[in-house]
Fold:
Amino acid sequence: ASELGHMQWDRTQAVLEWVARPQSSVTVRTVAYHHWLSRAWTKFNGFSDGQDVHELLQAEPDSGQGAVYMAILRGDEDSTTSGQDLQIGTNDREFHSFGLQSTFGWEHHGERFSSVFEGGIRLHGDDVRRLHTEDPYAMSGGHLTPTGEATETTLDSHATAQALAAYVHEDIRMDRLHLFPSSRLEIVRGWREDEGSTAEEPLSRAALLPGLGSLYEVDDWTDLFVGMHRGFSPVAPGQPSEVRPEYSWNFEGGLRRRIGAVQAELVGFFND
Structure:
């Protein structure tokens, strides 16, 4: 049944980066990127009559009607009814992403106070086209033989997302104490179009992700640190408006010790 199984990937990527340092303490880094991936995966999907192949393998595949299906899968017997035909499908997907990101960094270092600041903004776009088809094949003489029936399209969709992301992060040092305040804003606009269905209106969702960490240098060899940050998982294009992003709060605390070339860490982590 896997005689026609085949997967092909084609991938290209391009990145253009520009770095400017107008002052010794200031760095501006801009990156433009483009990524494209095409993946076609032809495989055995199942029998035309809907026989569950997973149940077939987990039950008693070599007795009763299960033995007939197993023999057809192995090519030991021919298909005798249209329900015993094998559905061979191709999952054809094309992914495309691109964007422009710029970050700004500023550093100030003093004897008892220093600051390392970074801020950035990104404009991003991506889309995926999915075309899934199936063709019935009969098992004949140990080989898959086309039945001549028309190709069935099981999925033909185009999902698109556009995003604006901005963040700020700072490492503030006051003697032996470091503070790491940060915040990130994500605005994602997405929609999905399915062949034969009414086009959806784009939906936009925003997420604000604050964070704060701190580290204290007990001595030249020992650090104590704690942190709390918010995380999220964006909503896939095509979901109804009442579906919200998934959020989490991440907490950690720990101890880091260095002795010469040896370093050890003890960290506790909790995700809510």
Observations:
- The two ends are 45 Å apart (CA to CA).
- The chain has a mean pLDDT of 93.
- Helices lie at 53-58, 64-74.
